[in-house]
Amino acid sequence: MDVSNLIESFAEFAKQKNIDRPTMIRILEDVFRNMIRKKYTTDDNFDIIINADKGDLEIYRIREIVDDESEDIWDHDKISLSEAQKIEPDFEVGEEVSEQVDIEHFGRRAVTTARQTLMQKVKDLEKDILYQKYKDIVGEIITGEVYQVLSKEVLLIDAEGNEISVPRGEQIPKDRYRKGENVRAIVHKVEMVNGNPKIILSRTSPVFLERLFEQEVPEVYDGLITIKKVVREPGERAKVAVESYDDRIDPVGACVGMKGSRIHAIVRELQNENIDVINYTENLELYIQRALSPAKITSIKIDKDNGRVSVYLKPDQVSLAIGKGGLNIKLASRLVGYEIDVFRELAEGQEEEDVDLDEFSDEIEAWVLDELKRIGLDTAKSVLNLNKEELVRRTDLEEETVESVLGVLKKEFE
Q: Do the domain assignments include residue 193?
């Protein structure tokens, strides 16, 4: 029963995992105290001395000597005078006996159980170390190597060989993963699932974009520029509000970099996500105008009680404000914290203007617009004046495509 090897192997493991010495000794002591309790019911009169480096273990049972006729003779921490004198003839009543208990005294089964318990403690400790390590860096960027691509998640391996996961919902839709390549993401959350730590990464979180700015823009990392808010549609578009407390620093210019050098690195990492960097301001009207860029706003009405904003624009600015698939206005609303309603502004007595078909190039594919123009339709109203059947008959467009086009054009005049 080589207990020394068991202790030495545990000590070696503890060093590899940077477990402090008091914790290592406490774990070893707990295991052997459990062994003592199984044999003697209690361990409160036992001392354990462990030298982990050498694998030495000494167990001492401490008892008070009482007279052979004493009523206390059966107490766990008492020993009769006659029994004590077998250990040392000079012992007297009232003295304390410290008797070394050999490990073999507990039996092979007890030592085997202790070995199994210690191995389980090692596994539990590894899990706890991993959990705490990642719990402390939630929100930070790490790099992992792809080792398995599954339908619901991509599994990565970190520098220490631990398994970490990027679930489908935390992947940028345009991401494509290949085994062996490195992937950057933030630690999104850490959970215990059936007693095992589950480390979940994210590439879609706004925090990931914020951390990328910290890596690429020294002024953000140094705190000279503050990122006030980030909103994203991962892989499509993002808006980032920034502010500088130093009047000499242009926060937007610093984040974009010379000829876009700084922001291009971030855009590439995010699969060509279009990033709008906006100068933050406490002036809500101005903030809304900047959030809806590149559209130029004519006037704004803010209803703070209902959390809504009515924005009025010239007809040619409406599609710019809304953006492809309504993405620009959606992100602007999230950035400023108000629901934004867009209205086309018309001069008094003026009928609603027609809109050139080219204004819908963000929402309708170019070849579809070209097909409509081929039959002489170059404005929204000229298309809407024809019914679906007529459009299908006169063009080479499918019925579903025509329905989609009519839906987009009708929204323009709602």
A: yes
